[in-house]
Amino acid sequence: MSQRQITFEILRYDPETETEPRFQAYCVPCEEEWVVLDALNYIKDTLDGTLNYRWSCHMAVCGSCGMMINGEPMLSCKAFIRDLPAGTIKVEPLYHFPIERDLVVVLDDFMDKLESVKPYVIPKKQRPIEDGPYKQTPKQLHQYQQYSMCINCLLCYAACPQYGLTPEFIGPAALALTHRYNLDSRDKGRRQRQEVVATHEGVWECSFVGACSEVCPKDVDPAGAIQQMKIASTADWYLEHLMPWRRS
Amino acid sequence: MAKSNKPIVWGLFAAGGTVCAFVIPVMILITGVLLPLGLFGPPEASYESMTRIVSNPVVKIVLFGILFLALWHAAHRLRITVHDFGIRNDQLVARAVYGFAGLFSLIALVTLLSF
């Protein structure tokens, strides 16, 4: 195992006591198989216990360690140091979110948006427990499975230039999850979700840059989900305006 | 939040994208490559046969549809590109690019009807 000394420039910021963020450099002896999160843990454990960042699983499942690494949104547990260009590694909190402390961002905006699209199965009629489980064929599962892989890591929001410009935009992950429930055979809540999806701040704020799908660590393809919802919303619009009697 | 009327412009944009991807390359192949190469008879005689084809009302309708949708698609694409470049005067840009698409659609219509 070879060890390399690598300098990490890490954004530090405490909004309660500091007026603006600053970068602090740490020199870390990195092992060949380390990811950026290992280096952060080394800093926290041996160099500077005051550094703040979120992490939990260290295996790209929990979605809590997303940050900007050399300006790219990545899960720090999935960013192998050997894959990054040689030289200083710059670590910043996810773009487009307010900073809570150092690499920790405030997630309230996303949480509110996620709640607004009702990300849960809304059945046509609630069934009593005695009736047993809702069954689904493998084909029905396949319809939405890809979109259910989202771990809410918010790399897509940090990558999305539209969200950066228009913070009201519902954004990639929340819309991908909307699509996930709309496609679920057990769900009948699409019309309720359309009240948010079909607004300007819903799918129509998206200009299909596609950065969300590029950075997604779980291959969810939020951009694809949004385009599919644009097509469905367009069909809705024409039906509502050209055949108004169709709607109840 | 009210539902957006964006589907009007986006629906035409999406249809135009399909046309641009599938039909325009074929038209370029026919009119720009195969025809000059003489695959449809001697190129000198092709103007005659082309005008005969375009004078058919069904062909006129189809061609106008293709040209209008392709122009609309280009206009909307430009509007988004301008936005992505950071120019924020969307209403003005929208009027300009859609106006351009409308004007050239009108020119295409007048030209088609003259055959």
Automatic annotation (TrEMBL), chain A:
Q: Which residues form the 4Fe-4S ferredoxin-type domain?
A: 141-170
Gene Ontology biological-process annotations: respiratory electron transport chain; tricarboxylic acid cycle
Q: What is its EC number?
A: 1.3.5.1
Lineage from the top down?
A: Bacteria, Pseudomonadati, Pseudomonadota, Alphaproteobacteria, Rhodospirillales
Question: What's the superkingdom here?
Answer: Bacteria
Q: How does it assemble?
A: Part of an enzyme complex containing three subunits: a flavoprotein (frdA), an iron-sulfur protein (frdB), and diheme cytochrome b (frdC).
What GO MF annotations does this protein's record show?
Answer: 2 iron, 2 sulfur cluster binding; 3 iron, 4 sulfur cluster binding; 4 iron, 4 sulfur cluster binding; electron transfer activity; metal ion binding; succinate dehydrogenase (quinone) activity
Which cofactors does it use? [4Fe-4S] cluster; [2Fe-2S] cluster; [3Fe-4S] cluster
Q: Which organism is it from?
A: Rhodospira trueperi
What InterPro entries does this protein map onto? Answer: 2Fe-2S_ferredoxin-like_sf (IPR036010), 2Fe2S_fd_BS (IPR006058), 4Fe4S_Fe-S-bd (IPR017896), 4Fe4S_Fe_S_CS (IPR017900), Beta-grasp_dom_sf (IPR012675), Helical_ferredxn (IPR009051), SDH/FRD_Iron-Sulfur (IPR050573), Succ_DH/fum_Rdtase_Fe-S (IPR004489)
* Coiled-coil ranges from the UniProt annotation: none
Q: What is this protein called?
A: succinate dehydrogenase
Judged by the first EC level, this protein's enzyme class is oxidoreductase
Task: Write out the entry's keywords from A to Z.
Answer: 2Fe-2S, 3Fe-4S, 4Fe-4S, Iron, Iron-sulfur, Metal-binding, Oxidoreductase, Tricarboxylic acid cycle
State the similarity comment: Belongs to the succinate dehydrogenase/fumarate reductase iron-sulfur protein family.
Automatic annotation (TrEMBL), chain B:
Membrane-crossing residue ranges in chain numbering: 12-37, 57-75, 96-114
- The keyword Nucleotide-binding belongs to this UniProt entry's keyword annotation: no
Q: A single GO BP annotation from the record? A: fumarate metabolic process
Q: Write out the entry's keywords from A to Z.
A: Cell membrane, Membrane, Transmembrane, Transmembrane helix
Q: Which SUPFAM superfamilies match?
A: Fumarate reductase respiratory complex transmembrane subunits
Matches recorded under InterPro entries: Fumarate_red_D (IPR003418), SQR/QFR_C/D (IPR034804)
Pfam families named among the record's database cross-references: Fumarate_red_D
Q: Which domain of life is it from?
A: Bacteria
Q: Which GO terms describe its cellular component?
A: membrane
List, alphabetically, the NCBIfam families matched.
PRK05470.1-1
What is the protein's name according to its record? Answer: Fumarate reductase subunit D
Which species does the entry assign this protein to?
Rhodospira trueperi
